[in-house]
Structures are given as structure tokens and as C-alpha cells.
User: Which sequence fits this backbone?
């Protein structure tokens, strides 16, 4: 498929995950075969005020999309220009976030209730974004699903592609993502449609392509503790040696990226995902939760996996 200037073949995208998809996580996803990464959602107003304190793009993570949230077309347009100047290959406007503090301001999924507002935003932003412009939507606000209507409007405004997580705003993360809606949207518009929702195993990537006819697949929660999901050639699950190496690598990336205290906090959260379901992982996680020194944590990781290999 062609997404703006990008020529991609059944690509995989790392979904925007607030508080998670920072540079180390994006880099790890890339190293394992992810084609395009997303930043977490960034407030358009915040980006205008705080600039590079909120957004930093590294040379080795292109192509990268910056996701913005906001409800004012001028502010979104200005923030998009700033994100492009910082190196974004694509700008994505968040039209799916169900969090109350976001929808209360008229941003995120709230926009799905106001198609005219969507049109105004996209016409304004399109004039100012030189690179790729996309939106990420849910299937609708509530049972009155309007993903097809919003998609058609967005296509007419000249966006380059669309990401769809087929749950409604009111549904939040309950139930299953309704992939049938991805198929409906794909059939209704000509621009690329990237499906998203509940792809948490490699096998489900092909299933989503086959069942929906989508042009790309976006993965969020399925990548937590599992960057191997992006490696489609993989036949076997990661060995414990691979897990250990990846955790250490992830920790090193975090240490280079942020303050030690924050890196320690972050890697502990990721270790929870990496070790989910492994023998004695609860005791291991409890033990490391108290560790405040980097060397000690590296040592505990090594010791846990060495023991695991000896079982
Ligand atoms: C912790 C968390 C943070 C998220 N942050 C964002 C975000 O910043 N922007 C966005 O569009 N979606 C966000 N989402 C939604 C995901 O991008 C994705 O649409 C959703 O999780 C469904 O895909 P999945 O089943 O592959 O996780 C978030 C989801 C989670 C669980």
C-alpha cells in the first residue's frame, strides 16, 4: 500500500500507548520488525507551549507518526507544523481516546459525535501538513456506530489513511473489537485502512488481514512484554535467554533516555509484562519491586533467568 510517500507491504504499526510508547519502546519494536511507530498522544496545546520538552524524535526511529489530540482546528494545525519541523513523517489526529479528561475538552472520541467539527479540523490541518496526515478513530461514540460516515468525510478532506479500533467510546476496552467494522470501512473508502484491536498473537495478524481486507495492522497491548510479535517470520516463542537479553537491552535504552529513578520504575512495569506466566515470576517481581539500584536490578534479572534455565 501507499501511505503518503511511504510504500509499504502489509505493514505493522506500533499503536500509540499513553505513558508507554516512548523512544526506548519504539526502538525495541523497530528492532523486532515493526514498520512504523507512533508516539503516545500529545496535547496540541501542550506541544505549542512546551515544544521539545514534549516531543523528541531520534534519527533511528523513522518512519514515525506523531499523534496529537485537541479540539481546535487552528491549534491542531499549528501543533502539526511543529511536529513536522521536529521530524514527524506523519501526523495522526486522535479521534478515539475515551478518557474523560480528554473527551471533556471536546477532543479524542468526542469528535466522533460532531462530523462537521471533524471536517473543519481536517480541512484546516490538511492545508498545513506537508507530509502524511491520518486519523485514528473508534467505531463510534455509542451503539450508533458512525465509523463509515466519519471515514468518508475524512477521505474527502484529503487525509492519507485511517486507523480504526472498532470499539465504541462507551465500550472503552470491554468486549471484543468488532473487526467486521474494519471491513465495512475498508469497502467504503479508497485510502489505506489500518486495522487495530485485540491482535495479541502473531497468528492474529494474518487473520486480521484476511478477514477485514485491511491494508495494515496496528498492535498495542499485544506488544507489551512481547516485541517479538512484530517478527512475522518467527515460528517459536522467545526463549528465556532472548527474554533476558531483551529486558536488559530495554533497561539500557531506558537508562540512556531518562533519569535513573524513572528508568527503574519503567523497567519494573515492563518486567511485569515480560515475565507474565513464567515460573516464579510473582516472587521475582516482588523482589525487584524493592530494588533501587541499577546494578542490583541487572543482577537480579540475570539470576532469575539463570535459575529459570536450570529448571
Ligand atoms: C495504556 C494504553 C494507552 C493508550 N494510549 C493511546 C493513545 O495515546 N492514543 C490512542 O490513539 N490510543 C491509545 N490507546 C489505544 C491503543 O492505541 C489501541 O487502539 C487499543 O489498545 C486497541 O489495540 P490493542 O488491542 O492492539 O491494544 C491506548 C491503550 C492503552 C491500553
Assistant:
Amino acid at each position: 500500500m501507499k501511505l503518503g510517500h511511504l510504500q509499504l507491504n502489509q505493514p505493522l504499526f506500533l499503536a500509540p500507548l499513553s505513558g508507554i510508547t516512548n523512544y526506548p519502546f519504539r526502538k525495541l519494536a523497530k528492532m523486532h520488525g515493526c514498520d512504523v511507530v507512533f508516539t503516545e498522544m500529545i496535547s496540541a496545546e501542550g506541544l505549542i507551549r512546551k515544544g521539545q520538552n514534549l516531543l523528541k524524535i531520534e534519527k533511528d526511529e523513522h518512519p514515525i507518526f506523531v499523534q496529537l489530540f485537541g479540539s481546535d482546528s487552528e491549534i491542531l494545525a499549528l501543533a502539526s507544523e511543529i511536529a513536522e519541523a521536529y521530524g514527524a513523517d506523519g501526523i495522526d489526529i486522535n479521534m478515539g481516546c475515551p478518557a474523560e479528561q480528554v473527551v471533556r475538552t471536546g477532543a479524542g472520541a468526542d469528535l466522533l459525535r460532531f462530523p462537521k467539527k471533524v471536517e473543519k479540523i481536517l480541512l484546516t490541518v490538511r492545508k498545513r501538513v506537508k507530509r502524511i496526515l491520518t486519523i485514528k478513530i473508534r467505531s463510534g461514540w455509542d451503539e450508533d456506530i458512525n465509523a463509515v460516515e466519519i471515514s468518508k468525510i475524512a477521505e474527502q478532506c484529503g487525509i492519507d489513511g485511517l486507523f480504526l479500533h472498532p470499539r465504541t467510546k462507551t465500550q472503552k476496552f470491554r468486549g471484543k473489537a468488532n473487526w467486521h467494522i474494519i471491513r465495512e470501512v475498508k469497502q467504503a473508502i479508497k485510502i489505506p485502512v489500518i486495522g487495530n484491536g485485540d491482535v495479541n498473537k502473531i497468528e492474529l495478524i494474518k487473520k486480521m488481514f484476511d478477514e477485514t481486507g485491511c491494508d495494515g495492522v496496528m498492535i498495542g497491548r499485544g506488544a507489551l512484554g512481547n516485541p517479538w510479535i512484530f517478527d512475522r517470520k518467527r515460528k517459536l516463542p522467545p526463549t528465556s535467554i532472548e527474554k533476558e537479553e531483551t529486558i536488559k537491552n530495554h533497561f539500557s535504552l531506558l537508562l540512556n533516555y531518562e533519569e535513573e529513578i524513572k528508568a527503574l520504575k519503567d523497567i519494573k512495569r515492563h518486567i511485569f509484562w515480560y515475565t507474565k506466566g513464567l515460573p516464579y515470576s510473582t516472587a521475582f517481581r516482588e523482589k525487584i519491586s524493592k530494588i533501587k539500584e541499577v546494578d542490583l536490578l541487572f543482577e537480579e534479572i540475570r539470576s532469575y533467568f539463570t535459575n529459570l534455565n536450570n529448571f
The pocket of flavin mononucleotide is lined by residues 15-18, 20, 40-41, 67, 94, 96-97, 136, 165, 196-199, 219-222 (CB under 6 Å).
